[in-house]
Amino acid sequence: MxxxxxxxxxxxxxxxxxxxxxxxxxxxxxxxxxxxxxQESLALLTQPQIRLTQARGLAKRLMVLIKxxxxxxxxxxxxxxxxxxxxxxxKADDLVFHPEET
Length: 102
Description:
It is a single chain. It is built from 4 helices and 2 strands; from the N terminus they run βααβαα. It has helices spanning 15-27, 32-44, 52-68, 79-97, and strands at residues 8-10, 49-51. By secondary structure, the protein is mainly alpha-helical. Helix 1 packs across helix 4 (79-97) and helix 2 runs antiparallel to helix 3. Residues 80-102 are annotated as: Disordered.
């Protein structure tokens, strides 16, 4: 596998992460620190491509933000929103734990 620092990932391939982050932005009760992390992540995803290492960092941020939203957050969502969150979490898991498959 090539050096992940030099591998570029089209942000359109990260659409599940983007939608999950947007869901958190609109529905989660987050403190200012987490809200800033969320805004930085969404801003990075407006670029056409980012480094694979950045994509992995965004995936880890999504995991942190989901935890920060609270253990009951997914249960408070409607089915469509819960599916959006699940798809984002799945993409994050792939990037972090199975990078050779992404």
